């Protein structure tokens, strides 16, 4: 489905907002472009950009996150391999795995895992009720955004997995009632059991899909 474009005026406003944001982020200067916007304008523009990413690469449609299924399986296969080697007394052959990608790679993966999912989907008519939303791409995907998984052996077979987004601990959604940031690895695998069985791409890639129920 092609990307929907706005009027020339809305495109110009978006371009001016990007110029303001980029110059501030890269040069740490208050760009003249920023003078075109007050705080409320900036919040509206932020929501507009979040709205775009929500429907294009995150929770808007199921196929968005399922595009990361192969990456998801690779991630858990590496964790399983390291754990099996550790439990068998072998030297872990891949103590650290680093994979480089783009925000367009990371966002669908975060959505597949259920991070930053609000109770209501972002739409063009519920801006006022979304001021406290978790889904904020400016915080989720800053420059050098990263997602880290760390396995811990706490002794006695107590193997735990800690997720971090941009070096900040987060909790796997729905894994525990207490929302621990370091749940048992077995609990995490059970939570994602259906995904770990494999992704049905024939079903996911149907041409006509209804917006995901959030």
From TrEMBL:
Short name of any one Pfam family annotated for the protein: His_Phos_2
Q: Which UniProt keywords apply?
A: Hydrolase
Which superkingdom heads the taxonomic lineage of this protein's source? Eukaryota
Gene3D superfamilies xref list: Phosphoglycerate mutase-like
Tell me the InterPro entries matching this sequence. Answer: His_Pase_clade-2, His_PPase_superfam
- The protein's name: Multiple inositol polyphosphate phosphatase 1
Q: Which lineage do the record's taxonomy fields give for this organism?
A: Eukaryota, Metazoa, Chordata, Craniata, Vertebrata
